[in-house]
């Protein structure tokens, strides 16, 4: 009796193809529906990581170099409270040497001898003494904010010295943090540090104007670390941590997506990342 064999099937039936196409269509619909939140998550997470890494590296440099080092966060000129980029900063030693004097009482011009506040440079941005540094005289602790360096033998100050100041070498200029190198720090596109939440939840940080003549214009916040690693940001009120809310700026509210808070603990300088808790003040959940 002769047997017949059935050949192996080499294709799909129409019904099988239709089922596969239906499954692909369902999966595509799910991906499209979830894509905005997936995109937000993938962007916000690196944004928080970037900020945490910048702060951690600045602290490490301060400890390694045994000199104040930190990060300067700039407010976006298009928004009062958003930060999208930053710079590394370092604080130089106090400026001393030579002597200072005033010509009369209530003077706002302080003459300098035996020392050059310009350092011999033609570019004011690299002068050893710059506006917003502070002059302290005779170790009194009273500081006068420097407003300008008009010549290589004088500086101007915001508040006058009420008494005639005879020539003295007993002074120092406390220099503010300067930019450290040319490295620029940028958050991913669309991701911001929303400093408006610091105002909303009572965690305000000291903001300094970029232009002293325009105090209501764009400003910046410094996170400055000491050689021990602790935070020594000038003007910072006693707080356990400096907190920064990282989120997707395309979302309508700060709670949308998966925002994070980067907390920098002032006593140790360590930077930690926390997911934002919904309801109440999320900063209350950050415990040193």
Q: What does the model show?
A:
The protein has 288 residues and is α+β, with helices and mostly antiparallel strands. The protein has two domains: 43-91 and 178-285, minor pseudopilin epsh domain (minor pseudopilin epsh fold, 3-Layer(bab) Sandwich), CATH 3.55.40.10; 99-174, no CATH class. 20% of the residues lie in helices and 32% in strands. The longest helix is centred in the N-terminal third of the chain and has 52 residues, at 14-65. The radius of gyration is 29 Å and the shape is elongated.
Break the fold down into its secondary structure elements and pairings.
Layout: H1 14-65, E1 69-75, E2 82-90, E3 99-101, E4 107-113, E5 134-137, E6 143-151, E7 154-161, E8 171-174, E9 178-186, E10 191-194, H2 196-200, E11 208-209, E12 219-225, E13 241-248, E14 260-265, E15 271-275
Antiparallel strand pairs: 1-2, 1-12, 2-9, 2-10, 3-4, 4-7, 5-6, 5-8, 6-7, 10-13, 11-12, 13-14, 14-15
Keywords:
20% helix; minor pseudopilin epsh fold; alpha+beta; 2 helices; 2 domains; elongated
């Amino acid at each position: 009796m002769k047997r017949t064999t059935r050949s192996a099937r080499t294709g799909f039936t129409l019904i099988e193809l239709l089922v596969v196409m239906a499954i692909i269509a369902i999966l595509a619909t799910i991906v499209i529906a979830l894509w905005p939140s997936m995109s937000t998550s993938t962007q916000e997470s690196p944004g928080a990581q970037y900020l945490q890494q910048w702060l951690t590296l600045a602290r490490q440099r301060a400890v390694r170099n045994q000199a104040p080092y930190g990060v300067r966060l700039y407010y976006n000129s298009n928004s009062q409270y958003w930060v999208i980029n930053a710079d590394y900063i370092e604080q130089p030693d106090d400026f001393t040497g030579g002597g200072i004097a005033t010509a009369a009482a209530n003077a706002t011009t302080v003459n300098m001898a035996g020392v050059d506040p310009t350092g011999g440079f033609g570019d004011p941005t690299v002068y050893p003494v710059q506006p917003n540094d502070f002059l302290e005289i005779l170790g009194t602790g009273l500081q006068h904010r420097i407003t300008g360096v008009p010549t290589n033998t004088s500086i101007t100050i915001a508040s006058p010295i009420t008494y005639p100041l005879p020539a003295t070498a007993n002074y120092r200029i406390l220099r503010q943090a300067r930019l450290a190198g040319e490295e620029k720090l940028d958050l991913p596109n669309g991701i911001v540090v929303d400093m408006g939440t610091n105002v909303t939840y009572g965690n305000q940080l000291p903001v300094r104007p970029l232009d002293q003549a325009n105090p209501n214009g764009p400003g910046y916040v410094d996170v400055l670390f000491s050689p021990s690693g602790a935070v020594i940001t000038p003007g910072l009120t006693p707080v356990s941590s400096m907190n920064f809310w990282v989120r997707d700026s395309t979302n309508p509210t700060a709670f949308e997506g998966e925002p994070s808070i980067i907390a920098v603990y002032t006593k140790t300088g360590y930077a930690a990342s926390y997911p934002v808790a919904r309801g109440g003040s999320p900063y209350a959940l950050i415990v040193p």
